[in-house]
Amino acid sequence: xxxxxxxxxxxxxxxxxxxxxxxxxxxxxxxxxxxxxxxxxxxxxxxxxxxxxxxxxxxxxxxxxxxxxxxxxxxxxxxxxxxxxxxxxxxxxxxxxxxxxxxxxxxxxxxxxxxxxxxxxxxxxxxxxxxxxxxxxxxxxxxxxxxxxxxxxxxxxxxxxxxxxxxxxxxxxxxxxxxxxxxxxxxxxxxxxxxxxxxxxxxxxxxxxxxxxxxxxxxxxxxxxxxxxxxxxxxxxxxxxxxxxxxxxxxxxxxxxxxxxxxxxxxxxxxxxxxxxxxxxxxxxxxxxxxxxxxxxxxxxxxxxxxxxxxxxxxxxxxxxxxxxxxxxxxxxxxxxxxxxxxxxxxxxxxxxxxxxxxxxxxxxxxxxxxxxxxxxxxxxxxxxxxxxxxxxxxxxxxxxxxxxxxxxxxxxxxxxxxxxxxxxxxxxxxxxxxxxxxxxxxxxxxxxxxxxxxxxxxxxxxxxxxxxxxxxxxxxxxxxxxxxxxxxxxxxxx
Length: 495
Known about the structure:
The protein is of the alpha/beta class. The chain contains 12 helices and 18 strands.
């Protein structure tokens, strides 16, 4: 249930519940169980904290007030699909040099993903260097990002619930390893709406090599209306496929057709006030019409300076693709888009950060693709005065083992027990690290941070209380973090 002290709730009854909530709880015995299946067919139980019965706006993407004031208005999530190695990027472990060639101690219990060969403890493949005034140690796979070390809060004690890519990706994106739940971006847009009614509130840009293994459930709206799901953007040409109307119908005729359709749908909706999917469909038609003129401009670099393009590595290899996506992300933030997710790596194995064959060959390739664009994004947001209002998150679905995959095998297997992520901008205390893994970088041992804690912290920085932000579905108040989640106040500038 919603907390009674939630300032966002407009309660009518002394018990602090709506009439429907009260009836639901009083009828939750055997009779209520029987009624559930009957009433569920009419979408009876779907209710949101924002789309209350007293709500006057029919636009589910309208900008909504936050639970409390925070700096962050937008979030850019840089997803390193495949699982980058923490001990080769942001978690320096000198003990791996001392114990190189030895086995991981037998008391370290884990699942050997895929039943792969197990080798010996292996040091970092590239050296670490201090960055900025903070002296944060960052690997030579990210020399450009290291220049912005004082902006980063590196979380070294992350852990997750799955060692398999598909379920781990879904877990990182939705809070559950099972498909069917709304993604983080969907929760943000559901809770806050969008500040641009001519663009999607939630945009996803994939790697040209393919999408994540688990596909669309990573940006799905789950049991929420489809309005809140992620919209796939392409970095060149028409950003959204099949967006343009038929060539034989001009804008005036298209507008008249849409107005007639909206009128008919609104009349239908007025008789069915709980028709969230119909309201969502109305908004989707209207948004698609407006995006025909707005969306192409978001990917049009004609007014960007050559200096800016060079900074992102646009037009050069291997940075062109991810550089374009990062530049588009900045342009979308400028236009009020709430949540943007960029994928590095697509498909499977070496086309992602899934470095089974070799850390140096894999991370060397993917690091070279993203290092300069990510650094440019941080710099560009900062110099435009947008970094304070934009939360930037970096990470993968899990990390990698500190040992190799057999003798003379330079790769590392999956590791959900301890890995690194970082945040910057949007209310983050920069130039610091939080949490620790053990001396081998195998598992989180101090100030452990679960995926639920990551999500709770992101929502907090966006001005949303993860316990208050709920959606009533099939008789239960659902939330992104379920009954879990703890905000990492130590990395927040405001505490």
